[in-house]
What does this fold into?
Amino acid sequence: MREVYNTDRMPPGQQFDRMRQAIEQLPMPLRVVGQPSTHLQAVVKIANLGQVGVTFLDSRSDRPLQLRRTHRLIRKSDPEEYRLVLSLHGRLTCQQGDHETRFKAEEVALFDTSQPLAWYRDGGTRPWQAFIVSVPRTALTGAARRAKPLLCRTLPVHRRLRVQLRCWLGEIVARKAIFEQIESEEGGALISLLNGLLAGEGDQGWFNSLTSEIVAMRAKSAILEDLGSLDMRPSRIAAAIGVSPRSLHKHVGATGQSTVMGLVSAYRLEQIYRDIIESSEDGASIASIGRRWGYPDPAHLNRSFFRRYRVNPGSLRPTRPGSDRGSQDGRR
It folds into this structure.
């Protein structure tokens, strides 16, 4: 996650001009129309998931604001993306093509960066907050034909899916660490979501399947956040993402990937494998690497490692003259 804009870090009186400059330099530049606000607050955070981007926008102004994307700005820069907007708080009037809609909190809408658009926000103390998912047009199937009738309209997204989506996107932009293990998988899940919406998927089975996928992705992120903890167990993971242990097991099982503790073990062994290879020269013992990632018992580590990779941990390191392979493995 990177924070690209925050008025709290700017001198008083300069927030509006700096916000206008920052917005005009975005990959999808917009023109800010309106009188300078004396009470402007805005925060923009961006997280990249491979070819998919997730943006969190939080703004409030005491005066009305308009954001416009004109033909001139499209010629200047066009990422050729679709933007899926999940509104969190406040109301926003949007116009694209010949359609205008006023969106309220918890609604989902779709926009095209290659067409002119306008967003209007009334002044007031209430914030407007939203998540914006950016997906390249090339990642979608038959996107232009299927998306046109859906632009600037409220999309039919089941409430339970919206709740999970809101929590998941919030966790993504709040991360301090980069989880390379799952970022491309998360981006793929968001592409699947948009493809399904464009294809008119709206039956209960599709929503349930996608909800399970999102819950499983959230569980994986929670596991990676605390991977070395010896107290890692399903109830703790469930509490971290705000679901019951039973619900966690159900959703993870529905994805057909693994059990909850199977995910924990897989990520731990993957990290141990990587650390063994990368620490060959610094002298770190395999036993100490195992302890770091939740395997305090060397014998348990050896069995689990062999079961997954069909080799012993010590065989990943070259034998040095006078060294004791058994001690490297943590065995006596």
